[in-house]
Amino acid sequence: MQTCVELRRKGLAMNCAQASRLMHEYFDGDLAHEDASELKAHLGGCPECRERFNDYERTEGFLHMALAAPVGRTEADRAALTDRILKSVPGRRSRRLARWLRQYPGVTVAAMLGLVLLASFIASWEQDQELVVRGSDLSQIVIEGNKVVVPEGARVDGDLIIENGEAVVVGEIRGNLTVIDGSVNMASTAKVIGEAREINQALDWIWYKLRSTVIDLAS
Amino acid sequence: MIPIEARLARKALKGDQQAFAEIVGLYQDKLYHMAFRMLGSRQEAEDVVQEAFLRVYRNLDRYDEGMKFSTWIYRIATNLCIDRLRKRKATYSLDAESTEHEGLDGYAVIPSDDRTPESEMLLSETQRIVRQAINTLPAKYKSVMVLRYLHDLSLQEIGEVLDMPVTTVKTRVHRGREYLRKKLERKL
């Protein structure tokens, strides 16, 4: 049996240290073609290196087997971990909302506009805690406290609108009577040629305001 | 044609929860497998996987599309594993023969996961010995071996994951192989 030392003394092309390096290249998958045939030749004449090569081959096999073996992961495990991960990820909601708002800038504008309109409605509604009497013909109207009286024999030509007060109608109104947040007290002699309306709810009021705004704009 | 992960990463960055869930789906198993081989415990492996994805999420804005997504996520996960291994070594004695999963009489202690499948419970002696040997490697060597033999990453890719030159990776693989050859020669 010739040992590596003896082979070297015989001046063979490759020594065992070189062969060892090439073996590693081979197992890395990086061995060049020419080197492969040289290595093969060396292995043919050197039993120690041959044994070493076989050892490396076995080691490679063991490594693959030990590390690539299945780890017993079930579908349930996977789902549970996915769930855990997704729950632990920060800022879900804020991110989504922020992104959505960025995508639709018109939403922000519309919201702002809506707020401004609402604010002005509320402001004017609050102002309307005062008694307001509106009409084209108020010459015969008598106001007593928060009572707006159309006296006996009196005549109002046109619509009469009363807010935050009590309408006491004894005479005649030649138009519509609208009372908002108040009450109507009609005498038996009262006459309203048109609609007599009481508006008490906030919604009705808003609708009424909208209508009157539109009518005003149209006229 | 952008790779799918880059596309998903862009979406996830904009807050697309579904896209991020898809990323988790793509990499969960591979990362778990690697972490389990590195750390040996199901609980720790899951913790590392969760932490890795969290870091990915938080750093999406810093993901450089010039780097492969897999390289980036493996890097995060591997570094977490190495950190844990190093912390462990600090508290355990450096007795090269024992790992936390071996009983004193040499029989495998069933790992913390009591739902280990039959195949693991009836571990061949060989596998046990090989794993024990791998566990005695220092953290950086171990990570090289795991990335190579579990995920078949090229030496180049391993270098990128561990932020090491290829020559260093090569040396580690060769030394690791040599070390294990000697160790297993005696035991097998």
Key features of this structure:
heterodimer; A: 219 residues; alpha/beta; 4-stranded mixed sheet; rod-shaped; B: 188 residues; mainly alpha; Rna Polymerase Sigma Factor, Chain: A; 9 helices
Radius of gyration of chain A: 50 Å
H/E element sequence of chain B:
HHHHHHHHH
How much helix, percentage-wise, in residues of chain A?
Answer: 40-55%
Over all CA atoms, what is the radius of gyration of chain B?
Answer: 18 Å
> What do the pLDDT scores of chain B average to?
83
Strand percent estimate of chain B: under 5%
Order of strands, main sheet of chain A, comes to 1-5-8-11
CATH superfamily membership of chain B: RNA polymerase sigma factor, region 2, helix turn helix motif
Cα shape of chain B = elongated
Query: Separation of termini of chain A?
Result: 121 Å
Indicate the overall shape of chain A. rod-shaped
Oligomer classification: heterodimer
Low-confidence blocks of residues of chain B: 92-119
Number of domains of chain B: 1
Detail the poorly predicted runs of chain A: none
Structural class of chain A: alpha/beta
